[in-house]
């Protein structure tokens, strides 16, 4: 038999460091799936990096668990959502 030692392998992860600029927040446009109108919001991340918060102009706050984010886009890939045919009829 091989002389391998059994033991516990410990992986040490560095603690998450959320930059102060993300904790303080910044201005963004939030696009809803049901509307082609953007809403200005302030987006922040909690100091432990678990939640994304956004506050609208009426001071209403919503949040999202960061682990549930599937996709983010910036620059030329961050386009205004397309207007569906049902929304065109309403306009």
TrEMBL record:
The entry's protein name is 1-phosphatidylinositol 4,5-bisphosphate phosphodiesterase beta-1-like
Domain named PLC-beta PH: residues = 18-82
Q: Which domain of life is it from?
A: Eukaryota
């Amino acid at each position: 038999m091989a002389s391998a030692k059994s033991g516990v392998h410990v992986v040490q992860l560095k603690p998450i460091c959320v930059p102060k600029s993300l904790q303080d927040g910044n201005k963004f446009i939030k696009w809803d799936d049901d509307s082609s109108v953007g809403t200005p919001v302030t987006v922040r991340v909690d100091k432990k990096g678990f939640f994304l918060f956004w506050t609208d102009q009426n001071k209403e706050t919503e949040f999202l668990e960061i682990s549930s984010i599937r996709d983010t886009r910036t620059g030329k890939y961050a386009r205004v959502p397309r207007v569906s045919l049902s929304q065109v009829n309403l306009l």
